[in-house]
Write a structure and sequence with these properties.
The protein is an all-beta fold and 1149 residues long. The chain has one helix and 96 strands. The strands form nine sheets. The protein has a 74-stranded mixed sheet that branches. Strands 2-3-6-9-12 form a five-stranded mixed sheet, with no helix packed on it.
Length: 1149
């Protein structure tokens, strides 16, 4: 600073006080030195007034005011026109306060000192207001009125300051130190035992030098007020700074330049002239320390560092650059006890804020040793450790906000942020928020890099982290990789949008959320508000990792995606309870036209619930290339997929979209209870060029129940609860396998398990293992539904499908399929229907109309029906249920093989291998104990049911007993229309109520007839009878059957003839004898009419006992002489075939 130094240095009293004028006494001894003592003055009460024409203290000179007893205030004025120059020591010989008034200004030189125990005020005001309309004026000097007064000057009492106060000295007042001027130009040191007040109606300029610090220190409050400007630069010397034991206030109507270190034992505030929060700016690097609160409206400038024992309240901060000379360098350990953060405001634009800390002077920070004669005390009782900053702009910089470092545990504290914009022209910046309370983000954090990498964001809170709807965190690397977004809370995280993406080359960063409760809430814009990590470039996308006790996603998305040449990241969730509702999604998606796989989704939980059309999915979208990732869910208690949103089911899905190239991922679910209800779905599908994924389920209980009814405005009418692997048109690929391992499986009210194709490829298999039971029950019907939806498990080739159907395998001790439910292997096209295999079963129950096991073909199909194999101790087919391998198209019927102990068909129960126009299928029944057919039940391999060709299929039965009450019309048939009847081979100890007939009747029949072709062969074997026993040689001329009919019993109208008992003669002698046994005829025919011309044949009895019975010819044989012999064979084997009867043979002879 330059000063206009006067050529004199003297103290000259004026005459304005008359006889009460001041008296200067030089060379008065004072301790080991001398001083110039000022006596006299006008005493009023406890005040004494002095008036001077000139007032200067020369270098090396001491000037002291006398302090008469009882005087508390010494007030002096300079009425001349010159500046007062204080180059030596100015003091008071006592404890009174000293007030000097010189409108021309003051200069305190480098050697200026104060020897004042009380307060000292230097003012360039024209006058001092004394009250009662009285002034003590330097420009209009008058005598001091003889009035009683109590003078305690305040800032408002100094009227019209007009001069400049400059200082280079070291000024130390025991109580208050006040400079009041038009302008202040300050260097040196100013120290007050109590308050230090520096005010100017124009501006205040503060500077330090490399060789000399600037220090302003107050034991209590420090106020720096420049009405027009406060310009502080005090960073040249490490000891420079502004210090207050109490509050430190900077006040101006314009932004305050704050290039200094500020230290407050109380609060630190920047204010406007109305004492509202004001603005600060700094081209360099200010440091603010306060034991209390730090508050100002805005800051613009270089790196800013704030350490507050209380709260920090700032509306806006814009960091414009670094300070290479004065930046803080520090390594901070965050509250997690693990993470370290390096802070260097000289290399990176930095906002560094600590609140609620007991360590406001951390080690390693410059400016800690000021060498004061008295260190300011601490006078602060903060109420909170809140950090509230509405907006932060720091392009490419670093923001660190914490109220967790060496915290004052008596204070609570949140961090509330409007937005943080660290978007960089090259690399984005980084953000760390570490809160003992909540973190609330009202708008956004953006740490993206336009020409490089995105920065990292780490939020740590003991309380909630809240990022509401419309707010979000973004880290994009437009030419590089995105940054990490890490949120950790000891309470809850509420978030809507978090996004990190990589557009360059490299491995993308992650999103990690950790909290007891995580709520990902609804978004305003479903396309732009979500939690996601994306890859647009080359490399590897980042991951999403979540650790929580409770995770809830409502109306939002959690996503990893690839748009470039590389794979997306993975999603890993570990939470005790997970709820997705309001059409929410967790998904991995491939949108890369040049090749990129989606990552895996891994979920570990106790309970997982998806409702309202929410989904977990992995997808390759239209016309893109890549494989979808796997979905692996492990839930200790339950997985619940319930309901829909419009035409979207709640579900777990892997999917290859039309025109996409890639294979679907595996869905693996391990849980105690899997519950799919009212449209809940698990499905793996492909519509592109690639295979559908597999579905693997391990559960104690699996329930698939119900159908959802969406709102009328959506196109899809009904959404079934289902587990499906499907190849959809126009896909080229194979279906995946569905593998369900459970204790109990329940499929009800239209639920579905399906592996199907209607594209090009083979359908997958379904493997069900239910260690206790599998239960399929019911159909879903609705007034708006044209056809009912049965509960079903099927492997199907639908219309348009080119390939083979899969195999449905069920292994369970108890299988129930009831009330319209179905197990089905179907083909509607050229591919063959798959097989159904039931193993290791104690009990199989099929009950109800349209219920059963079906491996069928439809009318338009050309493929073959599949096969059904059932291995069960007990099989019951009741109430119009059936097991069917029918072919309604041009393909062949399948085969049915049943093995077990007991087989019951009741009330139109049916086992069928019939065909419309081709050969009937085959049925094999290996039943250890009993086959029971009741109430119009049947076993059929009929062919040509459409009146077309095709031979009847074969029926093979091995069982001890077949019981079919004769009157109940239960049949075993292998009939045909245009073709030949099939073959029936029965090995049984006994047949009860059912017998062979050449055509079906209203009785219980065994038939192998043909309407237009040859009848088939029926063989009934009894393995327990000697095949040579009971052979009788019959005469070569047959007996006329008419001689076995008594004329008295001739049939006339109205008469009837009833045969009772088991076995014996048939009702008509032209009919064949029943198997099993014959009836001995004890009637006497001697009186009956007979034909005398009939030859008599003597029958020689063999040594074996020939029964005295009428024996019907049942066949012939060629003896050793080449002659044909007619024989009757007892029923070890009873064979029925298309042959001439005995009368025809006699006629030919």
């Amino acid at each position: 600073m330059g000063y206009g130094m006067p050529s004199f240095a003297q103290i000259t009293p004026d005459s304005s006080l008359g006889t009460e004028g001041s008296i200067v006494t030089p060379n008065v001894p004072l301790e080991n030195d001398t001083t110039n003592r000022i006596d006299g003055g006008a005493i009023r009460d406890d005040n004494i007034f002095h008036s001077f024409q000139e007032f200067n203290v020369n270098q090396g000179q001491q000037v002291h005011f006398a302090n008469p007893i009882g005087i508390e205030n010494i007030i002096g004025r300079v009425t001349g026109s010159n500046i007062s120059e204080i180059l030596g020591t100015l003091g008071v010989l006592g404890d009174a306060n000293l007030f000097l008034l010189n409108p021309n200004g003051f200069i305190f030189g480098q050697d200026a000192r104060l020897d004042i125990n009380g307060s000292f005020t230097a003012s360039t005001s024209e006058s001092l207001f004394l009250g009662n309309n009285l002034e003590f004026s330097a420009t209009n000097p008058q005598a001091v009125p003889l009035l009683t007064m109590n003078v305690a000057p305040g800032l408002g009492d100094w009227l019209n300051p007009r001069g400049v106060i400059t200082n280079q000295g070291i000024l130390d007042a025991g109580n208050d130190l006040n400079f009041i001027g038009n302008s202040l130009e300050l260097e040196g040191e100013l120290q007050a035992g109590n308050n230090l007040t520096l005010t100017a109606v124009d501006n205040i300029q503060i500077r330090d030098r490399l060789s000399a610090p600037f220090i302003a220190a107050a034991g209590n409050q420090l106020l720096v007020q420049g009405d027009q400007l406060v310009d502080i630069f005090a960073l040249n010397n490490s000891a420079s700074g502004l210090f207050a034991g109490g509050d430190l206030i900077l006040r101006s109507q314009n932004p305050i330049i704050t290039d200094a270190y500020f230290n407050s034992g109380g609060n630190f505030r920047i204010e406007d002239l109305n004492e509202n929060l004001g603005d600060a700016t700094s081209p360099n690097d200010p440091i603010i320390r306060a034991n209390g609160d730090v508050s100002f409206n805005s800051y613009t400038g270089a790196s800013l560092h704030i350490f507050a024992g209380g709260s920090v309240n700032i509306d806006s901060i814009e960091i414009t650059g670094t300070d290479p000379n004065n930046g803080i360098e520090e390594t901070v350990i965050l509250s997690d006890g693990v993470t370290t953060v390096a802070i260097n405001g000289s290399t990176q634009p930095t906002l560094y804020v600590r609140a609620g800390t007991t360590n406001i002077e951390p080690t390693g920070i410059q400016g800690n040793d000021q060498g004061f004669s008295s260190i300011p005390g601490t006078d602060s009782t903060p109420n909170s450790a809140d950090i509230r900053i509405n907006q932060i702009i720091n392009p490419g910089g670093f923001v660190f906000l914490s109220n967790q470092d060496q915290p004052n545990l008596l204070l609570s504290g949140d961090i509330d942020i409007g937005f943080i914009d660290l978007f960089g022209e090259v690399d984005g910046g980084s953000v760390v928020l570490d809160s003992r309370g909540e973190i609330n983000l009202a708008q956004f954090i953006d740490v993206s890099g336009f020409g490089g990498n995105g920065g990292d964001v780490q939020l740590i809170a003991n309380g909630n982290i809240v990022i509401p709807r419309g707010a979000g965190v973004f880290s994009s690397g437009f030419e590089g990789i995105g940054g990490n977004i890490i949120l950790t809370s000891q309470s809850a995280i509420e978030v809507t949008t978090l996004f990190s993406d990589t557009s360059g080359e490299g491995i993308g960063k992650d999103i990690r959320l950790t909290a007891p409760q995580i709520l990902i809430g609804p978004s305003n814009d479903f396309d732009n508000e979500f939690v996601g990590v994306a890859l647009f470039g080359e490399g590897q996308g980042g991951n999403i990792e979540i650790e929580a006790d409770y995770l809830e996603i409502s109306g939002n998305q959690l996503a990893v995606a690839t748009f470039g040449l590389g794979d997306s990241g993975n999603i890993s969730i570990n939470a005790d309870e997970i709820l997705l509702q309001d059409n929410s999604f967790i998904f991995a998606v491939g949108l890369s036209p040049i090749g990129g796989n989606t990552g895996d989704i891994e979920i570990r939980t106790n309970d997982l619930t998806l409702i309202d059309g929410s989904q977990i999915s992995s997808q390759i979208i239209d016309e893109n290339i890549g494989n979808s990732g796997n979905i692996n869910i492990k839930s200790a208690n339950s997985v619940n997929l319930i309901g829909n949103f419009g035409d979207l089911p709640s579900g777990i899905i892997t999917q290859i979209f039309p025109d996409a190239v890639g294979s679907g991922g595996i869905i693996s679910i391990t849980t105690s209870s899997l519950n799919l209800k009212d449209g809940g779905q698990v499905f793996a599908s492909t519509e592109g060029n690639g295979n559908a994924g597999n579905i693997l389920i391990e559960a104690r209980d699996v329930s698939i129940d119900g159908v959802a009814l969406p709102s009328p405005e959506f196109s899809l009418s009904f959404i079934r609860s289902l587990i499906v692997s499907e190849v959809l048109d126009p896909a080229i690929g194979n279906g995946g396998t569905i593998d369900i391992n459970a204790e109990q499986l329940t499929v009800t009210n239209g639920g579905l398990i399906s592996a199907s194709i209607d594209g090009t490829g083979n359908a997958g298999d379904i493997k069900i293992t239910a260690t206790k039971s599998a239960f399929f029950d019911g159909i879903f019907t609705s007034a708006n539904l044209e056809e009912s939806l049965p509960s079903r498990a099927n492997v199907a080739v639908f219309e348009g499908g080119t390939g083979e159907g899969g195999t449905l395998t069920i292994t369970t001790p108890s299988l129930s399929v009831t009330n319209g439910a179905q197990l089905q292997a179907l083909t509607e096209d050229s591919g063959n229907a798959g097989d159904i295999r039931i193993f290791d079963t104690d009990f199989v129950l099929l009950s109800g109309a349209n219920t059963g096991l079906f491996s069928d073909t439809t009318e338009t199909s050309t493929g073959n029906a599949g096969n059904i194999f059932v291995d069960s101790e007990v099989i019951e087919i009741r109430d119009r249920a059936e097991i069917s391998v029918d072919s309604k198209g041009t393909g062949e019927g399948g085969t049915i093989t049943l093995s077990g102990d007991d087989l019951t068909l009741d009330d139109q129960g049916r086992i069928s291998a019939t065909t419309a126009s081709t050969d009937g299928g085959d049925i094999t029944l290996n039943i250890n104990d009993l086959i029971l057919l009741q109430r119009e039940s049947n076993i059929a391999t009929d062919a040509g049911t459409a009146g077309a060709g095709g031979n009847g299929g074969n029926i093979t039965i091995n069982t001890p007993f077949i019981v079919a009450p004769a009157s109940e019309n239960s049949d075993i048939t292998a009939d045909a229309s245009q073709g030949n009847g099939g073959n029936i081979d029965i090995t049984a100890t006994g047949l009860f109520g059912i017998e062979f007939r050449e055509e079906e009747t209203d009785r219980s029949d065994i038939t192998a007839s043909s309407e237009f072709g040859l009848a088939g062969i029926v063989v009934i074997n009894n393995p327990d009878v000697d095949p040579t026993a009971g052979l009788v040689e019959l005469p070569d001329q047959t007996t006329d059957p008419s001689d076995r009919i008594i004329a008295g019993c001739g049939a006339v109208e109205g008469n009837s003839f009833t045969i009772t008992g088991r076995g014996g003669l048939p009702e008509n002698p032209t009919n064949s004898i029943r198997g099993q046994a014959v009836l001995s005829d004890l009637r006497d025919f001697t009186d009956a009419d007979s034909d005398p011309n009939l030859p008599t044949v003597k029958l020689e009895r063999s040594r074996s006992q020939v029964p005295k019975s009428i024996v019907q010819v049942s066949g012939w044989l060629v003896n050793q002489d080449g002659e044909v012999e007619l024989v009757a064979t007892l029923p070890q084997e009873t064979k029925f075939l298309n042959r001439p009867d005995c009368q025809d043979l006699a006629d030919k002879k």
